[in-house]
Amino acid sequence: MKKNLFALLAALLTALPALACPLCAKNQPKGFANITHGAGPGGPFDYVMLYGSIVVVVLTMGLFVRFLLRPEGHRNQARRKHLSFT
Length: 86
Hints:
The chain is mostly helical and 86 residues long. It has helices at 2-14, 22-27, 44-69, 74-82.
């Protein structure tokens, strides 16, 4: 299990060279240079949307890892007890 998790992490980290081209990196705002292609955030609402989506993705990934490593819990056992079809 730990070997698979390490292999997944290594695969994700090797994807970092696939970043923005030099022209797009030059045109991006200071904090976002070399991350994506395009013009970057245009106003304050764009930054709120960007940081909000980052928070949602990080929380989702954290919950995914938590339930992947420990799928059993007292809530699941209670549901299983009430939903048994035998």
